[in-house]
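Quick one: Lactate-responsive regulator LldR in Actinobacteria, GntR family from Kocuria palustris PEL, structure tokens please.
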Amino acid sequence: MVLEWVEARLRDGELSVGDKLPAERALAELFEISRASVREGIRVLDALGLVSSEVGSGPRSGATVVSEPSHALAWALRMHVATQALPMADIVDMRVLLETQSMKSAGRSDPAVRDEICGRARQILQRMDEGVSEELFHALDAEFHVTLGELSGNVVMVTILTSLRTAVVGYVAEGVARIEDWPKLRRRLQAQHWEILEAATRGDHAAAAELLREHILDFQAAVAS
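--- reply ---
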């Protein structure tokens, strides 16, 4: 009931990102349900990445409308990956499809926007070159790939890419732990990152897309062996 009410208000513009939901008591009276039922509805909205809840009193307390679609998608995918209902090979294929298509679409975006995105990607790689921890390296790796995905100019594509990357964090960590010479693989992956970025920066998006495909499959082969 609470979910349907929020959806309707978002659709008709009565609610928007940044707005506060009515207090629990007001919603309970509106729907003639218990406050516990209202809290459960808000918890679901929180899990879906649609509200952010703060306890206590003051201007920050209560539930605020947000928009974090990748949060909900990532958790759903992560749980289904854990059940093995979603084969990792299929997820890798989807990554290849989305990331290469994002790169191929880059030629249609504004040159200034492309330069800004490539600049951020370069800063990420420079930080990865600084000998960061393994955990941070993987986090920056994911950020690099999602940043390149922004070249597509497609918000839905970037959201799905973000979700896919988040969903396989555990799988990646387990796979890397089995690799005998991780430092060697890390250097190879980083060299591939730079090749991809340089191709994208000079506007050779077809070459960058092919390098992305080879890079993703190379890493998958390494962690799966």
